[in-house]
Amino acid sequence: MFENIDTPAVLIDQIRVEANMKRLQDYCNAHGIRLRPHIKTHKLPGTALQQIKCGAVGVTCQKVGEAEIMAEGGVGDILITYNIIGKSKVERVRALNDRIDLAVVADSDFVVSGLSNVLQNSTKPLTVLVECDTGMRRCGVQTIEAAMQLAKDIDAAAGLRFGGLMSYPPTGRISEVNTWLDEAKSLILTNGIECPVVSCGNSPDLELWHKAPVVTEHRAGTYIYCDRNMILQGVATEDDCALIVLVTVVSTPTKTRAVIDAGSKALTSDLSLKPGYGLIIGHPGLDISALSEEHGHITSDLPHRLQVGQRLRIIPNHVCPVSNLFDKVHFVRGEKYDQPVSVAARGALT
Amino acid sequence: MFENIDTPAVLIDQIRVEANMKRLQDYCNAHGIRLRPHIKTHKLPGTALQQIKCGAVGVTCQKVGEAEIMAEGGVGDILITYNIIGKSKVERVRALNDRIDLAVVADSDFVVSGLSNVLQNSTKPLTVLVECDTGMRRCGVQTIEAAMQLAKDIDAAAGLRFGGLMSYPPTGRISEVNTWLDEAKSLILTNGIECPVVSCGNSPDLELWHKAPVVTEHRAGTYIYCDRNMILQGVATEDDCALIVLVTVVSTPTKTRAVIDAGSKALTSDLSLKPGYGLIIGHPGLDISALSEEHGHITSDLPHRLQVGQRLRIIPNHVCPVSNLFDKVHFVRGEKYDQPVSVAARGALT
C-alpha cells in the first residue's frame, strides 16, 4: 500500500476527516453552539473551506500569517486568538480586516492601545475579544473585573469594537469555566456593553461544551485528525485518527530493537500522557521509545519480527506540530491517493 | 535592536559562526583529522561552502533531499550517513553520484543489495561505508565480525566501492569507540580490503577526537552555532552561541508569570539536561518552564519585571531542530543585519 510514496510521509484519510468534521458539526448544531475550528491542526485552506461548507461559522488562527493564507484561500471569517503586538503586524491586521470578517483578542491595555493606534482612522472597526484565563494559566486577564475593565477600554478605543470573551480552557473543568465566563459576561452587560460572543472549546472536552451554557462558540482543532493524546484521553479511537505518518524500517540492529526513518523532525518530540512517541498501528507490542532527529527507536520486550524495508503506519502523539513539519501531505481515501497537497500555512510564524 | 524584524525570528551572528568554524578547523588541522561538518545544524548551502572554504573536506547530510540541495548550492563532496532504502531514493543517489563525490552508509545486506541493484551498471561506483554501533544503540552493525562481513559484501557488490567505517558515537567514550573501530579496521585489512576512511565525531566531544587515532574524519554539526545543551555539557559558553531566537513578551498575567510569542513551533519541545526550554540571555532568574505551540511560558520565583512588548533573546536547548522550523533566518554582525536568508534544506525529509 502506498508503495510509490517515499517515506517519511503524512497520509490524511479524507473519509475519516469528513466523518470527524460532520460528527462535531452535528453535535454543535444539536446544541446551538457555533463551531469555529482551529486551523492549527491542518493548516490547509481547502480543509478550512470544507469545515465552513459543513457548517462552521469561520475558522480560528493563531498568527496573522496563518490568517492571511486562509483569507487568500477564500476563508471570509477569521478569529485570531492571539495578542497582536508591533506596528507591522497590526498594519497587516488592518489590511486583513478591510478584506474579511476579522476578530482578534487582547488581554492588556498595551495590546488594545497598539491596535487602536493603527486602526483609529479605519472606516471599518476591528472586533476585539477579551482573552480570559479561566484556569489554563497561559494568557488572559486574571479576574472578571479585569475582563470588564478591558471590555470598557476596547469599547472606548477608536477603531475598535468589543466582540465578547474568549478563553482557552483547562481540560475537564467545564463548570468552573462556565461560571467564570458567565460572571464576567454579566458584569460587562451590567456596565451597558453588549457581549455577543463567548468563545471557548478544545478537543479533549470535545462534546461537553453544551454543559457550559454561556459558551456560544467552540474552537476545537485536533478533532479533525485526532491523535494518540485524544485516544489516551478517551475522546477518540484508533479508527478516528485521520492523519498517519508512513515510515520505513531502516535498521534492525537486534531482535528487540529497530530503527525507522522518522524522528523528531517527522513525529515531533512532543510528549504524551503515556511514554512513547506514537502508536504503531497493528503492532501493540512495539514502542517508539526514543527519537533523534531522523531516527525513531523502536523497542520491544519480545522479538519485534520487523524487517528492514518494511513499512509502518504511526499515529503521532500530537498531530498539530506534525502538520507543521511536512511541506506536503497526501490525501488518501482507503488505499487510493492523488498528488500531494501543499501545507500552505505551515511555518507561518509571524 | 532589530526593531524591524518581526518575532519570533532566528538571528545568526556571523562573527560567532566564523569563530566557531575556525576553532574546530584549527583543531582538526593541528591533529591531522579531516573535518566533514554535518549540515543538519544550519541547512544552508552558503554556510556549507564557507565551511569547505575554511578547510572542511566536504559535508555530511542525513537525507538524499538535503544532499541534492547542497549539491545544487555548489557542494562537491557529500557523505550521507543514512541507510538509503527504496528504488526511487537509490535512483536519486545514483544521479547525485554522477555529479559529485558522494558516499553513503549501510548496516545490512538489505541496504547493500538495494544500492547495488540500481548502481550495478553505473560507470562510476558508489562509495559505501559500513555504519558501526560503537555504543550509541541506534543504527549500525553490532560486532566487528559483522562490520568485516558487510565490508566484504560491499567490496564484492557490483557498482559499489567499500569506503571505510562510520559511527555516530556515544558521548564521552572516545577510548571504547577507538578500540571498536580499530579492531574492525584491522580485521577488514587482514581480509585484504582497504579501509581508507574512519568517520566519527560529534559536538559534545568536540575537541577530543585526537585521542582516537583510528578516526580520520570528524563530523560535528552543532559546533557551528552551539546551544544550551553544549553549554550545559561544558563545551561552549553563552558567547559562543551564534543562533538566537528573538521573541516578544505578549502577556504578563502575573508578577511571576509571563508569556512569549515562541512556543514549540519556534523553540522545539526538545528537552535538555536541565529543566527549561531555553536560556533567556541576560535574565538568569527567568525560566522557560513550558511550551505550547505558539506560547512560551516564563516563570520566576521573584517578580519578573517583564513588560508586554519587550523583546528577549533566547538560546535554544537544541539548535538543529530550530533551523528546521524557520523558513528564513537573519544573518547578523553585531547589531547589523541584511535581508533574511532561505533555509534551503529545511524540511527535506526524504
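Chain A has a mean pLDDT of 97.
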